[in-house]
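tool_call: predict_structure(chain=1)
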Amino acid sequence: MNKRGPVTIRGVAAKVGLSTYTVSLALRGDRRVPAETQARVKAAAEVLGYRANPLVSANMERVRRSRWMKGTGATIGLVYESRENGALWRTDADLIAGVRRKAEELGFGCDEFDLGEARYWTETVLARALLARGISGVVIAPFRQGGRSRLALDYAKLAVVACGYSVTDPLNLTRVSPDHYNNCGGALAELYAAGYRRVGLVLPATMQRRSNYLWHARYLQFVWSQAMPVLPLLETSVDRGYSLEAFRAWYIANRPEVILTVDEEVERLFTKAGLKVPEEVAWAVLDWSAHYFGGRVAGMDQCMGRLGEAAAELVARKLWANQYGLQDLPQTTELRGVWRSGESAPSRVGASA
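tool_result:
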């Protein structure tokens, strides 16, 4: 440190013969300043012992955003994949609404690219569209069940955040995800407290992959810790590929008191198999949505709208810090969900046998 006090940006600017504005941009790695100039400024700052005050920097960043982001036309790209009929998975709709909401709050526009539409079906077309619109910040929503797991883009020029684990190529993306492991644990704890001791899992194989297999891992850990019987996983091969015969055979062999699953297809199987809900078997979902299930079904609300907000904010922070490309040590931010009680899994505590 300089004996006369801390070195300021003015001191660095005087050393290199540049304006304080240019030095400030260079120290933040802004791409408007040539790489050679950035290197010269950072070297001078190191020699002089300059250190930015983090509180001042944070305050100035808020001032810059409030002055410059509103109305600048800066835009976040939102990439998602609708189903064959153009509909969205219910929790994906919540997530997309959250991205839109946070982007607007932070002063960004939000351009949407649906890979389920023919015009955006290839990565080449998507890449051209992003370039043509000057979009360098992108949120990738979860792709549909059984859909693509790869998205080939020039990530070196983009600030990208993926939601969940449906995109596995590239693997080292910055991500935001529901806390699948602890969300499943929370659901199991609620069911256990309600008196259920035989808990079964019925999941499509694609949803296993989308949860990074964390639901099943937490299920196994929980039942072992509580000395509960471990029921074999009934895993279907494709989206909506539940087999009535396979389900009936699995149910008769294991007699679960409650079933954890992801969608209403299990409820249809109950009807076809002649099972009364919740008298003979209760059920709950791991991706509860208010506008779909309401109080009729119990389950874990993954708060996907909040997750979409977190993804948009993380992309915005990357853009403000000029952080582009893939990371050697990628960051994953997980959000805990909230249990929602419902008629499909009433408490059995104190109930007569």
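agent: The two ends are 76 Å apart (CA to CA). Proceeding to next step.
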